[in-house]
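Deviations from the work plan: none for this task. Representative record:
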Amino acid sequence: MTVQAMHVGVLGFGGLGQAAAKVLAPKQEMLLVAAADKHGYAYAAEGLNAQNSIAAYRSQGSLGYLEPFGTLTNLSIEDLIASGNRVDGYFLALPNLPNDFIPSVTKQFITSGWRGVLVDAIKRTSAVEQLLAMGSELQAAGITYLTGCGATPGLLTAAAALAAQSYAEIHKVEITFGVGIANWEAYRATIREDIAHMPGYSVEAARAMTDAEVEALLDKTSGILKLENMEHADDVMLEIAGICSRDRVTVGGIVDTRNPKKPLSTNVKITGRTFEGKISTHTFTLGDETSMAANVCGPAFGYLKAGMQLHKRGIHGIFTAAEIMPQFVK
Amino acid sequence: MTVQAMHVGVLGFGGLGQAAAKVLAPKQEMLLVAAADKHGYAYAAEGLNAQNSIAAYRSQGSLGYLEPFGTLTNLSIEDLIASGNRVDGYFLALPNLPNDFIPSVTKQFITSGWRGVLVDAIKRTSAVEQLLAMGSELQAAGITYLTGCGATPGLLTAAAALAAQSYAEIHKVEITFGVGIANWEAYRATIREDIAHMPGYSVEAARAMTDAEVEALLDKTSGILKLENMEHADDVMLEIAGICSRDRVTVGGIVDTRNPKKPLSTNVKITGRTFEGKISTHTFTLGDETSMAANVCGPAFGYLKAGMQLHKRGIHGIFTAAEIMPQFVK
């Protein structure tokens, strides 16, 4: 911890938010000062201890119970913003369900008069489109918002944008992910988001499923979720970065909910034509030992740092992970 | 060609500069208006035709002979800058030999009062260090300089910076390139730079070699140059981006000077430790059908476009390819 450390808040304290707290713990350039869940928030200017915060959330169900930093409130995000405590930037580790949840939280930030940096690890094209439509409002509010900053969209989208540089024209961007998690209960919201992408399911239907219903579905598939042609914002992000039209971008993957080992190596393949007329494919492959949490939270904070640099230069509005190089957080 | 197209100059018209002209030919966002070689330059506000420029250079030895746009002069770069013609940005496709050649050209730009964007595809650590030391001069001069923007350093360095996001600590960045060229004579300067990296050779010794001497060396190795622990600026670039100390970065490769097929797939491997304590490796691999020219010139212009956006926002000084996301040029 240094006096120059960025004061960071994490909204949402499920599997992703808790991992975010752990990722931040050893960092010198960022200090976790605030975190919120559905029923409360905790704030400490000197920094929240990740282990204590996670323990309070797990044992009592909310960060609001964390002594002496917690506040119990069902308007946790609103109240945290209104508290006026210094938070330079937030990672929105919130569920993507419903699809307008993150955009509605963003509206709260705009309305509040708070100025700073927001990053999300949102997945759906339609959610990113809602945020992109708020670009001028964000700019007027003095907020620098970086969207799609997880793994996919995020790390893999940026890799595609980078790889595209070798080509005169991009024919195809194919993202294929493998996720292995030991116990799906730690990622309740994420798994429901995945189910929502399966044939015969909608966002609403997946969200309404009880844990028992999710269990029953997973029993039928031996814990495997196979996903194809998913609605992922990588497509709109690469389109607005001018790399290719969105119909040339596909996202699919396999999630094993009963095994921490990945069923396949997550990768993105970028196929294009060079200026000499050659067709070729660049490939970016993630190491199998890296978890979803590492591949989402690391980039999210890397983009938060980059966003802070933009913010300090007076550059506000909305940007995607395909346009900005994330900065390494020490 | 649109009225908003960026007016681009290319300094150096060997293999790389000629490829750059071809890469630019179909672009709408960039117009090649100026190019210079040792003995002259050509300028045309409406754009230089790549084929005609290459034909003039090849048949007569200099762009200075290109009718009606050429000027013969042994101070070609100086005279082109002094001509006062509008050039928004330059790609310095100049030889890296001698090691202070690109820094000395940069001094000319600083002294001239010209304001705009410069990118290079420089290779050596010591050359990039000379440029980094000129950061405040560049900033004061209103120049936005992006260094190390080719393939390695450049595309692969940026991929390493991006991949690093998944990790809490980076242990190793290993760049291994394969290059296949049908006839080394088209890349005389580049091949001498490669030879300079071999045991028993220096930059000066390689530069002083006659074509016959290069031929004789290549005859002994069946046209293969094997390079290890090369002095490549990827190391200093990743160090100043805060990703890892330079001693954790290695660059090596194999150049086949008698076969356009690559002897191995060019790749960068990024090994690190995640926040959970797992050791893993991300890999970015270039498609074998992509040429050195495509992997150098594409990124160089992608960074030139990104540099222009920085320049327009009043952001001047020096940046490396590991800090900035290149933009796709249409």
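Chain B touches chain A through 54 residues (CB under 8 Å).
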